[in-house]
Amino acid sequence: MERNGLNSRSRDKKAGLWIGGISFFLFISFFIAPLISEPDTITDLSGRANAFDYHSDNGQNFTWTDLDFYSATIYAFGDLNCHQKHERSWSINGNQMPVCVRDVGIFAGLALGGFIYSRKGVNRWTLRDTFLSVLPDQYMTDVYVKNRRTLLFIGIGALCVLPLAIDGFTQLLLDRESTAFLRLATGIPFGLVLGLFFAGAYSARPNRFDRAGDVRLPG
């Protein structure tokens, strides 16, 4: 029997592995795509998020439809999901990466969060308790006895999200530009908590239990 009271955690493993696997594939592809493309051909990108800016020749210095299928797919993903500001991105092989440094950190965190959940996470009825299941039960007894679960859940989220929010918004409100290190360092915890949240949201299934009292909780 698993520590949540169920006989198997196969669904929990699958949820974490899917999230971790897809995120890791994208993360590593962000490095491979510019590496295998012709050197010094993808430079000075600067587009919009949630829109395709480089899917056709509109006078830009780059069009991802000219790349091989794999690289084109990765750069299309970056084109749609990232601003691709060249001053906020790394270059490999003389080519700008498909996403900015912060997004590199976010996907690294997503992969890490998914893989952590695949090893540690279990369905505990609610999203909150399922999310917290990645923490060792022996350290959670006091939290459950004193019913501080929601406080811890919100606290972990805030701790991982606020650094990114502060770093991003202060660039808009103040005369400052963040650094590659800060973008990476704030992107990783944001992605980590996002990966754990997604895995927990998929795994939290009350219908796996006959009643709420069957759920095994710390304490």
Compute the number of helices. 7
Task: Please describe the biggest sheet, giving its number of strands, its sense, and whether it closes into a barrel.
Answer: 2 strands, antiparallel
pLDDT average, as an integer? 96
Question: Structural class of the helices, strands and pairings?
Answer: mainly alpha
Strand order of the largest sheet: 1-2
3D architecture notes:
The protein has 219 residues and is mainly α. Helices cover 55% and strands 2% of the residues. The protein has seven helices and two strands. The chain has a two-stranded antiparallel ribbon. A hairpin with a 2-residue loop joins strand 1 and strand 2. The two termini are 17 Å apart.
Summarize the SSE layout with pairings:
Elements: H1 10-36, H2 69-81, E1 91-92, E2 95-96, H3 101-120, H4 127-132, H5 141-145, H6 149-173, H7 180-203
Antiparallel strand pairs: 1-2
Short structural summary:
The chain is mainly α and 219 residues long.
Descriptive terms for the model:
mainly alpha; 219 residues; two-stranded antiparallel ribbon; 7 helices
